[in-house]
Protein backbone atom coordinates (compact mmCIF):
# COMPACT_ATOMS: atom_id res chain seq x y z
CA UNK A 1 0.00 0.00 0.00
CA UNK A 2 2.83 2.42 0.69
CA UNK A 3 3.69 2.33 -3.00
CA UNK A 4 0.09 3.11 -3.91
CA UNK A 5 0.06 6.01 -1.48
CA UNK A 6 3.36 7.20 -2.92
CA UNK A 7 1.95 7.05 -6.45
CA UNK A 8 -1.09 9.02 -5.34
CA UNK A 9 1.11 11.60 -3.66
CA UNK A 10 3.16 11.97 -6.83
CA UNK A 11 0.03 12.49 -8.86
CA UNK A 12 -1.22 15.15 -6.53
CA UNK A 13 -1.26 18.44 -8.38
CA UNK A 14 1.38 20.86 -7.21
CA UNK A 15 0.31 23.82 -5.10
CA UNK A 16 0.85 27.22 -6.67
CA UNK A 17 1.46 30.32 -4.64
CA UNK A 18 1.40 33.69 -6.38
CA UNK A 19 3.93 36.31 -5.26
CA UNK A 20 2.98 39.83 -6.24
CA UNK A 21 5.53 42.61 -5.85
CA UNK A 22 5.78 46.15 -7.18
CA UNK A 23 8.13 45.30 -10.02
CA UNK A 24 7.72 41.56 -10.39
CA UNK A 25 5.29 38.75 -9.91
CA UNK A 26 5.96 35.06 -10.03
CA UNK A 27 4.74 31.73 -8.79
CA UNK A 28 6.15 29.36 -6.23
CA UNK A 29 5.20 25.84 -7.31
CA UNK A 30 5.32 23.36 -4.43
CA UNK A 31 4.87 19.59 -4.51
CA UNK A 32 6.35 16.13 -4.97
CA UNK A 33 8.30 14.87 -7.98
CA UNK A 34 8.53 18.29 -9.61
CA UNK A 35 12.04 17.76 -10.98
CA UNK A 36 10.70 15.36 -13.56
CA UNK A 37 8.28 18.08 -14.64
CA UNK A 38 10.68 21.03 -14.37
CA UNK A 39 11.00 21.34 -18.15
CA UNK A 40 7.23 21.45 -18.64
CA UNK A 41 6.75 23.91 -15.80
CA UNK A 42 9.57 26.24 -16.86
CA UNK A 43 9.28 26.13 -20.66
CA UNK A 44 6.38 28.63 -20.91
CA UNK A 45 8.22 31.08 -18.62
CA UNK A 46 11.67 31.11 -20.24
CA UNK A 47 12.40 34.03 -22.61
CA UNK A 48 14.47 31.61 -24.72
CA UNK A 49 14.76 27.80 -24.48
CA UNK A 50 18.20 28.05 -22.98
CA UNK A 51 19.44 27.93 -19.38
CA UNK A 52 22.60 27.72 -17.31
CA UNK A 53 22.11 25.53 -14.23
CA UNK A 54 24.28 26.46 -11.25
CA UNK A 55 24.47 23.79 -8.57
CA UNK A 56 26.85 22.28 -6.00
CA UNK A 57 28.68 18.94 -6.15
CA UNK A 58 26.40 17.21 -3.63
CA UNK A 59 23.16 18.20 -5.31
CA UNK A 60 24.67 17.50 -8.73
CA UNK A 61 25.55 13.93 -7.78
CA UNK A 62 22.09 13.24 -6.34
CA UNK A 63 19.61 15.12 -8.50
CA UNK A 64 21.16 16.89 -11.50
CA UNK A 65 20.49 14.17 -14.06
CA UNK A 66 16.72 14.18 -13.46
CA UNK A 67 16.62 17.94 -13.90
CA UNK A 68 18.72 17.90 -17.09
CA UNK A 69 16.64 15.07 -18.58
CA UNK A 70 13.44 16.92 -17.87
CA UNK A 71 14.78 20.15 -19.41
CA UNK A 72 15.99 18.43 -22.55
CA UNK A 73 12.68 16.53 -22.90
CA UNK A 74 11.04 19.95 -23.15
CA UNK A 75 13.52 21.17 -25.75
CA UNK A 76 15.43 23.40 -23.35
CA UNK A 77 19.17 23.63 -24.01
CA UNK A 78 21.16 23.57 -20.78
CA UNK A 79 24.70 24.05 -19.57
CA UNK A 80 25.87 23.40 -16.03
CA UNK A 81 28.30 25.10 -13.65
CA UNK A 82 29.13 23.16 -10.48
CA UNK A 83 30.57 24.71 -7.31
CA UNK A 84 31.87 23.00 -4.16
CA UNK A 85 29.27 22.64 -1.39
CA UNK A 86 29.53 24.96 1.60
CA UNK A 87 29.46 28.61 2.59
CA UNK A 88 32.91 29.15 1.06
CA UNK A 89 31.29 29.10 -2.36
CA UNK A 90 29.55 32.39 -1.52
CA UNK A 91 32.86 34.16 -2.14
CA UNK A 92 34.27 36.67 -4.62
CA UNK A 93 36.63 33.96 -5.92
CA UNK A 94 33.78 31.56 -6.69
CA UNK A 95 31.67 34.42 -8.07
CA UNK A 96 34.50 35.20 -10.49
CA UNK A 97 34.90 31.55 -11.50
CA UNK A 98 31.15 31.14 -12.08
CA UNK A 99 30.65 34.40 -13.99
CA UNK A 100 33.66 33.51 -16.17
CA UNK A 101 32.11 30.12 -16.94
CA UNK A 102 28.71 31.70 -17.62
CA UNK A 103 30.21 34.32 -19.95
CA UNK A 104 32.41 31.77 -21.64
CA UNK A 105 29.32 29.72 -22.46
CA UNK A 106 28.12 32.67 -24.51
CA UNK A 107 24.98 33.58 -22.56
CA UNK A 108 22.62 36.11 -24.06
CA UNK A 109 20.38 38.61 -22.28
CA UNK A 110 17.48 36.18 -22.49
CA UNK A 111 19.31 33.11 -21.17
CA UNK A 112 17.95 32.05 -17.78
CA UNK A 113 20.16 31.18 -14.81
CA UNK A 114 18.74 28.34 -12.71
CA UNK A 115 19.86 28.01 -9.08
CA UNK A 116 19.62 24.33 -8.21
CA UNK A 117 20.54 23.62 -4.60
CA UNK A 118 20.32 25.08 -1.11
CA UNK A 119 20.51 28.68 -0.01
CA UNK A 120 24.20 28.93 -0.79
CA UNK A 121 23.73 28.07 -4.45
CA UNK A 122 20.60 30.28 -4.51
CA UNK A 123 22.40 33.33 -3.14
CA UNK A 124 25.47 32.89 -5.36
CA UNK A 125 23.58 32.01 -8.56
CA UNK A 126 21.09 34.80 -7.89
CA UNK A 127 23.90 37.34 -7.58
CA UNK A 128 25.51 35.99 -10.76
CA UNK A 129 22.13 36.40 -12.50
CA UNK A 130 21.60 39.89 -11.06
CA UNK A 131 24.95 41.18 -12.30
CA UNK A 132 25.86 39.28 -15.47
CA UNK A 133 25.02 41.44 -18.51
CA UNK A 134 23.29 43.77 -15.98
CA UNK A 135 20.72 41.16 -15.14
CA UNK A 136 19.70 37.77 -16.53
CA UNK A 137 16.37 36.01 -15.90
CA UNK A 138 16.65 33.73 -12.91
CA UNK A 139 14.74 30.69 -11.61
CA UNK A 140 15.10 28.90 -8.30
CA UNK A 141 14.87 25.17 -7.73
CA UNK A 142 15.63 24.98 -3.99
CA UNK A 143 16.62 21.57 -2.61
CA UNK A 144 16.96 22.18 1.14
CA UNK A 145 14.03 22.85 3.47
CA UNK A 146 15.64 26.14 4.47
CA UNK A 147 15.91 27.33 0.89
CA UNK A 148 12.36 26.16 0.07
CA UNK A 149 10.78 28.06 2.95
CA UNK A 150 13.08 31.03 3.26
CA UNK A 151 15.92 31.98 0.94
CA UNK A 152 14.31 31.20 -2.44
CA UNK A 153 11.47 33.64 -1.84
CA UNK A 154 12.10 37.36 -1.47
CA UNK A 155 14.73 38.21 -4.04
CA UNK A 156 17.77 38.72 -1.80
CA UNK A 157 20.95 37.45 -3.43
CA UNK A 158 24.56 37.89 -2.47
CA UNK A 159 27.97 36.69 -1.41
CA UNK A 160 30.22 37.06 1.62
CA UNK A 161 33.35 39.17 1.98
CA UNK A 162 36.14 39.16 4.54
CA UNK A 163 34.16 41.94 6.27
CA UNK A 164 31.17 39.72 6.92
CA UNK A 165 28.32 37.64 5.49
CA UNK A 166 26.09 38.79 2.63
CA UNK A 167 27.79 42.18 2.29
CA UNK A 168 27.81 42.20 -1.52
CA UNK A 169 24.46 41.57 -3.07
CA UNK A 170 21.43 42.68 -4.98
CA UNK A 171 17.68 42.34 -4.95
CA UNK A 172 16.86 40.16 -7.95
CA UNK A 173 13.48 38.43 -8.11
CA UNK A 174 13.16 35.05 -9.83
CA UNK A 175 10.72 34.33 -12.67
CA UNK A 176 9.68 31.14 -10.86
CA UNK A 177 10.46 28.99 -7.84
CA UNK A 178 10.00 25.21 -8.01
CA UNK A 179 10.07 23.63 -4.55
CA UNK A 180 10.16 19.86 -4.99
CA UNK A 181 9.76 18.30 -1.54
CA UNK A 182 10.87 14.92 -2.94
CA UNK A 183 14.42 16.27 -3.24
CA UNK A 184 14.47 16.64 0.56
CA UNK A 185 14.59 12.84 0.97
CA UNK A 186 18.34 12.89 0.50
CA UNK A 187 18.85 15.82 2.89
CA UNK A 188 20.60 15.03 6.20
CA UNK A 189 18.10 15.09 9.09
CA UNK A 190 20.00 17.91 10.84
CA UNK A 191 19.55 20.11 7.76
CA UNK A 192 15.83 19.27 7.71
CA UNK A 193 15.43 20.29 11.35
CA UNK A 194 17.42 23.47 10.73
CA UNK A 195 15.03 24.43 7.91
CA UNK A 196 12.05 23.59 10.09
CA UNK A 197 13.23 26.18 12.64
CA UNK A 198 12.62 28.91 10.04
CA UNK A 199 9.05 27.62 9.52
CA UNK A 200 8.52 27.79 13.26
CA UNK A 201 9.94 31.31 13.20
CA UNK A 202 7.31 32.36 10.67
CA UNK A 203 4.53 31.21 12.97
CA UNK A 204 6.09 32.86 16.01
CA UNK A 205 6.43 36.22 14.22
CA UNK A 206 2.85 36.80 13.17
CA UNK A 207 0.98 33.62 12.36
CA UNK A 208 -0.25 31.90 15.55
CA UNK A 209 -2.31 29.55 13.42
CA UNK A 210 0.88 28.38 11.68
CA UNK A 211 2.51 27.76 15.05
CA UNK A 212 -0.51 25.70 16.17
CA UNK A 213 -0.31 23.82 12.86
CA UNK A 214 3.37 23.11 13.62
CA UNK A 215 2.45 21.78 17.05
CA UNK A 216 0.06 19.34 15.40
CA UNK A 217 2.18 18.45 12.38
CA UNK A 218 5.88 18.75 13.27
CA UNK A 219 6.30 14.99 13.56
CA UNK A 220 4.89 14.45 10.08
CA UNK A 221 7.05 17.23 8.62
CA UNK A 222 10.22 15.98 10.31
CA UNK A 223 9.58 12.40 9.19
CA UNK A 224 9.30 13.55 5.56
CA UNK A 225 5.57 13.07 5.03
CA UNK A 226 5.20 14.58 1.54
CA UNK A 227 1.76 16.07 2.19
CA UNK A 228 2.83 17.69 5.46
CA UNK A 229 6.04 19.00 3.89
CA UNK A 230 4.14 20.50 0.97
CA UNK A 231 1.73 22.25 3.32
CA UNK A 232 4.53 23.46 5.60
CA UNK A 233 6.49 24.90 2.66
CA UNK A 234 3.37 26.53 1.27
CA UNK A 235 2.40 28.13 4.58
CA UNK A 236 5.91 29.39 5.26
CA UNK A 237 6.31 30.77 1.72
CA UNK A 238 2.92 32.49 1.96
CA UNK A 239 4.05 34.10 5.20
CA UNK A 240 7.40 35.20 3.72
CA UNK A 241 5.71 36.48 0.55
CA UNK A 242 3.37 38.67 2.56
CA UNK A 243 6.23 40.17 4.55
CA UNK A 244 8.30 40.75 1.40
CA UNK A 245 5.36 42.29 -0.48
CA UNK A 246 5.01 44.73 2.39
CA UNK A 247 8.69 45.72 2.47
CA UNK A 248 10.37 44.52 -0.74
CA UNK A 249 13.63 46.43 -0.26
CA UNK A 250 13.93 46.26 3.55
CA UNK A 251 13.45 50.00 3.94
CA UNK A 252 11.12 49.97 6.91
CA UNK A 253 13.01 50.46 10.12
CA UNK A 254 10.39 48.71 12.25
CA UNK A 255 8.11 45.85 11.33
CA UNK A 256 8.37 44.62 7.74
CA UNK A 257 11.35 42.48 6.80
CA UNK A 258 13.14 43.35 10.02
CA UNK A 259 10.78 41.01 11.88
CA UNK A 260 12.22 38.08 9.90
CA UNK A 261 15.17 38.46 12.23
CA UNK A 262 13.29 37.01 15.20
CA UNK A 263 15.79 34.81 17.03
CA UNK A 264 18.54 35.86 14.63
CA UNK A 265 20.41 38.45 16.69
CA UNK A 266 21.06 35.70 19.23
CA UNK A 267 21.41 33.09 16.47
CA UNK A 268 24.05 35.00 14.51
CA UNK A 269 26.07 35.57 17.68
CA UNK A 270 25.95 31.85 18.51
CA UNK A 271 26.95 30.91 14.95
CA UNK A 272 29.82 33.39 14.91
CA UNK A 273 31.06 32.14 18.28
CA UNK A 274 30.86 28.47 17.23
CA UNK A 275 32.88 29.37 14.14
CA UNK A 276 30.77 28.28 11.11
CA UNK A 277 32.54 24.90 11.16
CA UNK A 278 29.39 22.81 10.89
CA UNK A 279 29.12 22.26 14.63
CA UNK A 280 26.10 24.59 14.77
CA UNK A 281 23.98 25.06 11.64
CA UNK A 282 22.25 28.39 11.06
CA UNK A 283 18.81 26.91 11.70
CA UNK A 284 20.06 25.23 14.87
CA UNK A 285 21.32 28.59 16.11
CA UNK A 286 17.95 30.11 15.19
CA UNK A 287 16.19 27.38 17.15
CA UNK A 288 18.06 28.40 20.32
CA UNK A 289 17.71 32.08 19.36
CA UNK A 290 13.92 31.86 19.05
CA UNK A 291 13.61 30.61 22.59
CA UNK A 292 16.05 33.28 23.80
CA UNK A 293 13.90 35.98 22.16
CA UNK A 294 10.90 34.66 24.11
CA UNK A 295 12.93 34.41 27.33
CA UNK A 296 14.18 37.99 26.89
CA UNK A 297 10.64 39.18 26.20
CA UNK A 298 9.35 37.44 29.34
CA UNK A 299 12.15 38.98 31.43
CA UNK A 300 11.28 42.40 29.97
CA UNK A 301 7.71 41.81 31.14
CA UNK A 302 6.16 42.06 27.67
CA UNK A 303 5.38 38.38 27.04
CA UNK A 304 3.48 35.85 29.18
CA UNK A 305 5.52 32.97 30.65
CA UNK A 306 3.05 30.44 29.21
CA UNK A 307 3.99 31.39 25.64
CA UNK A 308 7.67 30.80 26.45
CA UNK A 309 6.70 27.45 27.98
CA UNK A 310 4.79 26.47 24.83
CA UNK A 311 7.77 27.30 22.60
CA UNK A 312 10.18 25.45 24.90
CA UNK A 313 7.90 22.39 25.01
CA UNK A 314 7.69 22.30 21.23
CA UNK A 315 11.47 22.52 20.72
CA UNK A 316 12.09 19.85 23.34
CA UNK A 317 9.37 17.51 22.03
CA UNK A 318 11.12 17.43 18.66
CA UNK A 319 14.64 17.32 20.05
CA UNK A 320 15.52 20.67 18.54
CA UNK A 321 18.40 22.71 19.96
CA UNK A 322 16.84 24.91 22.63
CA UNK A 323 19.45 26.15 25.07
CA UNK A 324 22.96 27.58 25.09
CA UNK A 325 23.82 25.00 27.77
CA UNK A 326 23.20 22.24 25.18
CA UNK A 327 25.93 23.49 22.82
CA UNK A 328 28.90 21.22 22.13
CA UNK A 329 31.20 23.60 23.95
CA UNK A 330 30.97 26.40 26.46
CA UNK A 331 30.45 29.96 25.21
CA UNK A 332 30.56 33.09 27.34
CA UNK A 333 28.02 35.89 27.55
CA UNK A 334 30.85 38.40 26.94
CA UNK A 335 31.79 36.75 23.66
CA UNK A 336 28.16 36.63 22.50
CA UNK A 337 27.51 40.26 23.40
CA UNK A 338 30.66 41.27 21.50
CA UNK A 339 29.34 39.49 18.38
CA UNK A 340 25.99 41.23 18.75
CA UNK A 341 27.67 44.61 18.86
CA UNK A 342 29.18 43.82 15.45
CA UNK A 343 25.82 42.71 13.97
CA UNK A 344 24.92 44.55 10.79
CA UNK A 345 21.46 45.29 12.20
CA UNK A 346 23.08 48.01 14.29
CA UNK A 347 22.08 51.49 13.29
CA UNK A 348 23.22 54.74 14.87
CA UNK A 349 25.17 52.60 17.32
CA UNK A 350 22.08 50.93 18.78
CA UNK A 351 21.20 47.27 18.45
CA UNK A 352 17.75 46.34 17.23
CA UNK A 353 16.06 43.31 18.80
CA UNK A 354 12.95 41.52 17.63
CA UNK A 355 10.82 40.84 20.71
CA UNK A 356 7.41 39.21 21.18
CA UNK A 357 4.25 40.10 23.04
CA UNK A 358 3.36 36.43 22.65
CA UNK A 359 3.21 33.72 20.01
CA UNK A 360 2.62 35.38 16.64
CA UNK A 361 3.13 38.92 17.96
CA UNK A 362 6.65 40.05 17.14
CA UNK A 363 7.81 43.67 17.15
CA UNK A 364 11.18 45.37 16.91
CA UNK A 365 12.69 47.38 19.69
CA UNK A 366 15.81 49.52 19.96
CA UNK A 367 15.80 50.02 23.67
CA UNK A 368 16.69 46.69 25.17
CA UNK A 369 19.29 47.15 27.92
CA UNK A 370 22.38 45.07 27.11
CA UNK A 371 22.68 44.25 30.83
CA UNK A 372 19.39 42.32 30.60
CA UNK A 373 20.51 40.59 27.40
CA UNK A 374 23.65 39.47 29.20
CA UNK A 375 21.59 38.24 32.15
CA UNK A 376 19.35 36.18 29.86
CA UNK A 377 22.38 34.64 28.13
CA UNK A 378 23.82 33.63 31.51
CA UNK A 379 20.45 32.23 32.62
CA UNK A 380 20.44 30.09 29.46
CA UNK A 381 23.86 28.62 30.17
CA UNK A 382 26.43 31.07 28.76
P1 LIG B 1 23.33 24.89 1.80
O1 LIG B 1 23.00 25.50 0.51
O2 LIG B 1 24.74 24.85 2.20
O3 LIG B 1 22.79 23.40 1.86
C1 LIG B 1 23.10 22.62 3.00
C2 LIG B 1 23.86 21.35 2.61
O4 LIG B 1 22.95 20.43 2.05
C3 LIG B 1 24.96 21.54 1.57
O5 LIG B 1 26.03 20.71 1.91
C4 LIG B 1 24.31 21.04 0.28
O6 LIG B 1 25.26 20.52 -0.63
C5 LIG B 1 23.41 19.97 0.79
N1 LIG B 1 22.21 19.70 0.01
C6 LIG B 1 21.42 20.59 -0.62
N2 LIG B 1 20.33 19.99 -1.09
C7 LIG B 1 20.44 18.68 -0.79
C8 LIG B 1 19.63 17.55 -1.01
N3 LIG B 1 18.44 17.64 -1.59
N4 LIG B 1 20.06 16.35 -0.56
C9 LIG B 1 21.24 16.24 0.10
N5 LIG B 1 22.04 17.28 0.35
C10 LIG B 1 21.64 18.48 -0.09
O7 LIG B 1 22.56 25.60 3.00
P2 LIG B 1 21.09 26.18 3.20
O8 LIG B 1 20.80 25.98 4.62
O9 LIG B 1 20.14 25.70 2.19
O10 LIG B 1 21.30 27.75 2.91
C11 LIG B 1 22.13 28.52 3.72
C12 LIG B 1 22.46 29.80 3.01
O11 LIG B 1 21.24 30.49 2.72
C13 LIG B 1 23.31 30.75 3.80
O12 LIG B 1 24.39 31.19 3.02
C14 LIG B 1 22.38 31.91 4.12
O13 LIG B 1 23.07 33.14 4.20
C15 LIG B 1 21.45 31.87 2.97
N6 LIG B 1 20.13 32.49 3.21
C16 LIG B 1 19.69 33.41 2.32
C17 LIG B 1 18.45 33.99 2.48
C18 LIG B 1 17.95 34.96 1.45
O14 LIG B 1 16.91 35.60 1.68
N7 LIG B 1 18.59 35.08 0.33
C19 LIG B 1 17.65 33.65 3.57
C20 LIG B 1 18.13 32.70 4.46
C21 LIG B 1 19.38 32.13 4.28
MG1 LIG C 1 17.60 32.59 8.90
TrEMBL record:
The gene is aroK. Residues 195-346 form the 3-dehydroquinate synthase C-terminal domain. Binds 1 divalent metal cation per subunit. Can use either Co(2+) or Zn(2+). Keywords: Amino-acid biosynthesis, Aromatic amino acid biosynthesis, ATP-binding, Cobalt, Cytoplasm, Kinase, Lyase, Magnesium, Metal-binding, Multifunctional enzyme, NAD, Nucleotide-binding, Transferase, Zinc. This is Multifunctional fusion protein. Coiled coil: none annotated. Residues 81-193 form the 3-dehydroquinate synthase N-terminal domain. GO terms for molecular function: 3-dehydroquinate synthase activity. Catalyzes the specific phosphorylation of the 3-hydroxyl group of shikimic acid using ATP as a cosubstrate. Its EC number is 2.7.1.71, 4.2.3.4. Zn(2+) binds at residues 198, 264, 282. Its cofactor is NAD(+); Co(2+); Zn(2+); Mg(2+). It is found in: Cytoplasm. Signal peptide: none annotated. Its main location: cytoplasm. Belongs to the shikimate kinase family. It catalyses: 7-phospho-2-dehydro-3-deoxy-D-arabino-heptonate = 3-dehydroquinate + phosphate; shikimate + ATP = 3-phosphoshikimate + ADP + H(+).
Amino acid sequence: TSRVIEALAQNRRPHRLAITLERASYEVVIGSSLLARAGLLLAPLLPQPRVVVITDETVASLHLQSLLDSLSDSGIHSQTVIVPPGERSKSLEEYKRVTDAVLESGVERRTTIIAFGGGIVGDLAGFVAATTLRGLPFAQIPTTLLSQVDSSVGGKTGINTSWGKNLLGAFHQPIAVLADVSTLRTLPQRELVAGYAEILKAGLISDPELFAWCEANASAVLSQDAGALTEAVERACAFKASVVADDEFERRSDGGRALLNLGHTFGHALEAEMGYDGSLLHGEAVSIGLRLAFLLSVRLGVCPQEDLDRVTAHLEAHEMPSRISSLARAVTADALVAHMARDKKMSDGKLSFVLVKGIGQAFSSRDVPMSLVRQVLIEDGA
